[in-house]
Amino acid sequence: MRDSPARAVTAQILAGGAVVRVYDPEGTDNARTALPGPAYRADVMAACRDVEPVLHLTEWRQYRALDPAEPTAAVRMPRVLDARNTLDRAARHPAGTSAPSDVPCMGRSRVGPEPSG
After folding, report:
1. 56 — phi, psi (to 5°)?
2. What are the structural domains of the chain?
């Protein structure tokens, strides 16, 4: 969560009174200094534990490679907002979400097939 749009989104959510957990594989130390409000976690699973919903605000390859069953098992409510359009909605369906539309993606329709490419 270096100097990125994710920092601005996190600040707005905090300003609204939400409790926020954050994991950044590269920039946690810098982010703690720039934005001290969230609870920074050591890994993605710790950030997902007992939360609702999950906001996916990055394009890091390691998040795309996650087995969707792992974070889904940790969250209180299996809802993910993919603000970067990098997650495979169809892959999340068998992991506990009720439908691929449980992973709304900004700029994507909630119905119809995944875009190719």
Report:
1. -95, 110
2. 5-102 (3.40.50.720)
